[in-house]
What does this fold into?
Amino acid sequence: MNLYEHTIIARQDTSPSEIKQLTEKYSKIVEKNDGEVIKTENWGLLNLSYLIKKNKKGSYIHFKIKGKGNVIDELEKNEAIDKKLLRYLTVKVKKFDLEKNYFGNKEDSEKKESAKN
It folds into this structure.
């Protein structure tokens, strides 16, 4: 089984309920193809480096997926025709970093670090 980190960017006018639907939709596609979603992170609405289809911002959703290559093929095939998505990216990794939350609140991560010490 391979390990993948997969990120999708939804349009800036996508509502929170639609974001949840997108997350569920792509999680189900992974599970149908004998894959497993290890972790899902909603990074929220972030600024884009440049305009993509007249959007300045995008809602980022990040998946950590365990599965075979056909899982990613099926995901990307469905994402290519989804009008709510601006971009998607898949990276194959050797292991997951499940500890660090890169896009969480800085205050939350500081509290956790001070609690450890």
Q: What stands out?
A: Residues 46 and 86 are 13 Å apart (CA to CA). The mean pLDDT is 84. The helical segments are 16-32, 69-80, 106-116.
